[in-house]
Amino acid sequence: xxxxDDTIAAIATAEGPAGLAxxxxxxxxxxxxxxxxxxxxxxxxxxxxxxxxxxxxxxxxSGSEENGRSRRLDEVVVALFRAPRSYTREDVIELSxxxxxxxxxxxxSALLAAGARLASPGEFTLRAFLHGRIxxxxxxxxxxxxxAATERAHDLALSQLxxxxxxxxxxxxxxxxxxxxxxxxxxxxxxxVGGVEVPAxxxxxxxxxxxxLAELLADAAYGRALREGAxxxxxxxxxxxxxxxxxxxxxxxxxxxxxTPGTTRDRVSEAIELSGIRVTLSDTAGLRVALDPVEAIGxxxxxxxxxxxxxxxxxxxxxxxxxxxxxxIAERLRGRRVVxxxxxxxxxxxxxxxxxxxxxxxxxxxxPVSAARGAxxxxxxxxxxxxxxxxxxEPDLPVTNPRHAEALTRARQAxxxxxxxxxxxxxxxxxxxxxxxxxxxxxxxxxxAVGEDLLDRIFSRFCVGK
Length: 466
What we know:
Blueprint: E1 8-11, E2 20-26, H1 30-37, E3 38-40, E4 51-59, E5 71-81, E6 92-98, H2 101-113, E7 117-118, H3 123-130, H4 136-147, H5 151-161, H6 164-188, H7 190-193, H8 200-217, H9 220-228, E8 230-235, H10 242-250, E9 268-274, E10 277-283, H11 293-308, E11 312-317, H12 324-333, E12 338-343, H13 353-360, E13 366-368, H14 377-387, H15 402-423, H16 428-446, H17 452-459
Parallel strand pairs: 1-7, 8-10, 8-11, 11-12, 12-13
Antiparallel strand pairs: 1-2, 2-6, 3-4, 4-5, 5-6, 9-10
Helix pairs in contact: 4-5, 6-8, 6-16, 8-15, 15-16
């Protein structure tokens, strides 16, 4: 995506029947282009900023427009925003027309014929970033806000859009920059500032920022789950009650339940919300050696769901001793984030939690449940939330974007190297180099140090018109 100074246009609302549709125009010639299409009481060029204008969108006829051959496209209300008081800090026009696909497409076509260019995905927000109205964390929050699937995800996207994360990072950057400036001054003017050693208060300042970054990153897994959702397949051997537990967690009969092993052939998925996370549960076929080709297809789907799961819920029949099939599944789950559900607890317990931890690991939560009676379901939901990174008392500002988490992890590592170098009395140049590396990495998050390739990757994920 190349930064250009032309005028762009796009439909800003979703396709399909609706009460209204909005077509957006931005750029130096936005008002001129819109005036070519809009017919109202006054021209937009002569109107002040932040005003609304009722009229008609038309496609002017070729040649003179005095002959009345201009074609009406739709009745519209035009919102006029003059630079720099607009979304992009350019002149912006938004034409609101009737919903549905036809009106908006016809108006967009007329605007393109009048000299606008079709906007690329995310180009309006890209221009807002390039013109300095928002930083890169705020720009990415626009997309997160549009795709938020839960209230908590929506609230966090709003917080980031309001600049909360950017301001938090700016405060850290300022402290690191102060530390780097003092170290560099001691290197360049050792006689004037009392030597080249890195003073204790600078080391303490670097350590404090390193610690605060660690706290910010501690909830990154939960933040990512909030932003992207989580997939949780229910796996286990046949007839352990996966479908019954799936239905119990949903609170409705979504999967077929029979006493016959192998009833579930296809994967059935439904979403629930846990701790603000949209969790997609998947009931899968029992894992065993397939008895027929159809069951083999279902088991293949179950295997793929297991591989793609954020967390895996292993369902075990707790009323029977562990079978070889259970142990084979446990081997497959080693190293994964797992919650074990000891189902059928209403029939007595013949499997102890310690047996599950022996085959999976000591940190695996094991929850006795009864899908038939609903016993243990709150504890199972709590264990699953914990496995997804949720904690009691949700963090105010978790890092939700994997790109941010990766970059801030590198910044923290650079600060750690700077601290270690200072404590080892290494040359100040080395400490300063590591601090500058941390500042560069902070800039990748906020947008102060970002290349065109990265901008292309970020904004290509946006919808056209935003």
